[in-house]
Amino acid sequence: MPVNKSFMERVIIFDQCLQRKQKAWTKTMLIEEINAKLDEKGAFDRRKIRSTGISDSTFYGIVKYLREQYEAPIECKKGEYSYSEEFHFSYSSLTVKEAERLSKMIVLLKELDGVSLMADFEETIARLNSVVQLRLEGNDKIIRFEHHTVQRGMKEYFNKLFDAIASRTEIKIQYQRFSTGIVKTFNFYPYLLKESHNRWYLLGKVVGKKDMITLALDRIEQITLLTEEAFTIDDFDPDVYFSHTIGITVNNNLSPELVKIRVHKSQVPYFETQPLHSSQQKEKSYANGDILLSLNVKINIDLKLLLMQYADVLEIVSPQSLRDELYEALKIGLTNNKI
Predict the structure, then answer these.
(1) CA distance to 58, 65, 97, 161, 298, per residue, from 1 (Å)
(2) Is residue 207 part of a domain?
(3) In terms of Cα–Cα distance, which of 138, 139, 193 is closest to 162?
(4) DSSP three-state, residue 169
(5) Distance between CA atoms of residues 6 and 43, nearest Å
(6) Is residue 231 domain-shared with residue 186, that is, in the same domain?
């Protein structure tokens, strides 16, 4: 039965009747009371005959809905309806199915190791489950993601950055790049937290600068939230920003290029079922079973590393500059690992 505002009005009145325990409620009495209450609220069209109230099927639909969705302890003895135990219905409450879905979701979210926000969320779900008396035993071993050691910076800064982004609060960052070892301090507008290859990154803009930059959480030395007026977010859209990118590195000065790769026939099902990028297209099929794929992407370090990972099962057809660069990198790798 579809659940709409009109139906819920009837459910609420039904519950209010059963809460009045001093009265014995038969089906006829309940239907009459529901119709009367709806009439008082102007729920019936005055131009129609009064008998256009709820039907028997609607009445039984109310009983079924409360029993199935909210586990309402409705019993009927000798034609009289009542709650067999204490029960309080609230439309704003979670249904059993909703709470069950939330419980299943927490199983997945618990896999986000190192994020202390999850501890608060788990407590909330536990309270919700207790409200509807729901118990899902053993569901902590349904799913597992690949894990590594919790990244430095996650426990220390994730919550603070999350709150800063949500409230658009300017922050002061002490940041040390691996390449230079120099610690720099600057004010920063945080826009987005993003995970890539089990590392977390912060995207935003240095105050006074135009371009978006990416900072690794494990290179942050200290964060201070500045209690100034909330900064204004521009037209930044993460989906658009990363639309031509594989991984985390976005070079604002580069334009997307058409990268074509020939994939060995043995790997065709893998590349077709898990595309390297949303722009992936099959250009042609070869007689031997190989296929030619194209990607419309910005050529960054993440793309190069990904292609090198599959170096034994694919060929870079174009652009030639990318083919040459990967060839040189592979030659160095062969030299480094020469037997």
Answers:
(1) 9, 8, 15, 45, 51
(2) yes
(3) 193
(4) coil
(5) 9
(6) yes
CATH code where residue 189 lies: 2.30.30.520
Domain stops at, among 241, 273, 308:
241
Q: Please give the Cα distance from 220 to 188 (Å, whole number).
A: 12
Is there a single domain that holds both residue 232 and residue 291? no
Q: Residue 296: CB partners within 8 Å, gap ≥ 6? A: 244, 256, 257, 258, 259, 277, 279
pLDDT band at 47 (very low <50, low <70, confident <90, very high): very low
Query: Residue 77's domain spans which residues?
Result: 5-83
Looking at 241, 274, 294, the residue that finishes a domain is: 241
Distance set, CA 167 to CA 57, 132, 163 (Å): 50, 33, 6
Asked if residue 261 and residue 324 are part of one domain, the reply reads yes
Residue 251 lies in a domain: no
Residue 148 counted as domain residue = no
Of 253, 256, 291, 288, nearest in space to 272 by CA: 291
Closest CA to 318 of 286, 290, 293, 336: 293
Total number of residues shown for the chain? 339
What digits encode the pLDDT tens for the residues 77-92? 999 999 999 887 776 6
- The reply to whether 230 and 303 lie within a common domain is no
Q: Is residue 89 part of a domain?
A: no
Average pLDDT over residues 49-69: 80
DSSP type of residue 22 = T
C-beta neighbour count of 248 within 10 angstroms? 19
E-assigned strands of 125-176? Answer: 171-176
> Based on C-alpha coordinates, what's the Rg of the chain?
30
The tens digit of pLDDT for each residue in 5-21 reads: 678 888 889 998 999 88
The residues pairing with 285 across neighbouring beta strands, listed in sequence order, are 291
> What is the tally of structural domains in the chain?
4
pTM to 2 decimals? 0.62
What's the CA gap between 216 and 175, in Å, rounded? 9
User: What tokens were used for 34?
Assistant: 């529901």
Out of 52-61, 67-76, 166-175, 287-296, least confident range: 52-61
Phi, psi of 95 (to 5 degrees): -75, 165
